Model the fold of this input.
Amino acid sequence: MKEDISYRSPTYYELAAPPELDWRKYRNEDWREYRREWDERPRRKEAGDFPLHLDIDPTNRCNLKCSMCPRTYYIQEGMSGWNPEGRFGEMDFSFYEKLIEEGRANGLKSVKLNFLGEPLVYPRLVDMVKVAAGAGLWVMINTNATLLSPDYSEQLLKAGLTDIFFSFDSPYKDEYEKVRVGAVYEKTLANIRDFMRIKDEMGCNGVQTRASMVLPENLSENELETIKADYIKLFRDLKVAEIGFGLPSVMGLDYEKEFGLFPGFICPDLFRRMFVFWDGPVGPCCGDWERRLVMGNARDTSLAEIWRGDAYRRLRTAHVSGHYEEIEACRQCSVPYLSTM
Done:
């Protein structure tokens, strides 16, 4: 049975949970108010005094070499913008605690613990979750799930994890292992199956689960529909609540030169979300992998000051005034264009 698309963001669309897997009914009013504000801030074009959400990258390390990942592309091409000092490491835990404490004091609502690295590689991820949950935050991770052992799953849930997003890029073994280089289809699927079982045994009904894949390029509509149907069946059978399909960005493509400008585009994340890299720099965007839009450094400046600072102000003004093309990284970004494909 074909399911309806229930939600779409610029580069991604998602099937919402069926009633029997609906985790939202277990969330409280604080979460509902947070999500209302998440939608309203971009509409009002108001950033407030502090972001609603932080994306914090615990590490720039990863155990896979996925073919569609910008990290893989930059390493293969010898590009250094994503990792200017050429270092692979982990966020200092005391620095992380400082970020969470500032967020707690300023009304932060949620944190997601990853960006370009795989969070399960970080040795103190469970402690990170525990600190954020103890500060009253909704705590999310996006993971390739290859390291998600049953024991790890139980520890994360006990620590207070509220949302987990599995990146699993094909319902078919050969295609999955070709994309997720270094992963084993059966093992990763077993990890996800174990997580779902443990979550249910622990009574964690309010934990959001989602599986998503980046759709292959250059396939017919019928081929894509078959892949999506098989993917939906695979993860509905595992009782994963949300199922998503991403549209691929072409690494190295200047979207403005290829397609022209996209009039009226205003990036919503400028008003609600901030990214903190493992070594301290702060960025505004899920697609600024090359650190071209560094807004400041959280090691020497508070997040509140950065959020209200001149760099963010100029960026928001360019978007709100209809001139996002003044910002090179925004002009070349795939997000405005993928929303129409």
